[in-house]
Amino acid sequence: MLRTRPDSRPVVVVLSLVFGGAVATGAMAVTTVARMYTSDFLREFRDSLGFVVLQCLLVGLLVGVALLVVRSRSLVLPAVAAVVALVALYVGASFGFLLAPLVTGHGPSLRFAAPWRPAFSLTLLVAPGVAALLSGLRVLITRSPASRAGGAGDARP
Q1: How many other C-beta atoms can be found within 10 angstroms of the C-beta atom of residue 1?
Q2: Phi/psi of residue 151, each to 5°?
Q3: Binning pLDDT at 50, 70 and 90, where does residue 8 land?
Q4: How far apart are CA 69 and CA 71, in angstroms?
Q5: pTM of the model
Q6: How far are the Cα atoms of 20, 55, 77, 113, 118 from residue 96, in angstroms, in the given order?
Q7: How far is CA 101 from CA 33, 37, 88, 97, 112, in A?
């Protein structure tokens, strides 16, 4: 008889989502404060689109990597990971916007008021895309016949 590995318990999945989302939110807040810092060091890079894409990539990676420990076969997991990454992106940017005056000692300029206005950009799809891709790859690996057969290849008798 063929034995299959059981799916992860829902508690582990939820805890992984919460942990990944919290770490990604903190990373987004720290990078937002770094972006708003008033020095001239790397100012052009911090104001560029590349830095925003790097922030989104970091958030998506942190959420996706947290879900790599989960053995779930559910195809809903990549969609939930994408939502968690998008929420972490906006909440982290808002926290960073609030924390920047405490760190820098200066009030934020008006050009950083974007987290308070819900604006959408295609570059913001990097975070949910990376998170969904990583968790989707994990789901596909878990659903493959080789993983159900214990890594022995083809599961035919």
Answers
A1: 3
A2: 85, 10
A3: low
A4: 7
A5: 0.77
A6: 18, 12, 28, 11, 15
A7: 9, 9, 21, 8, 12
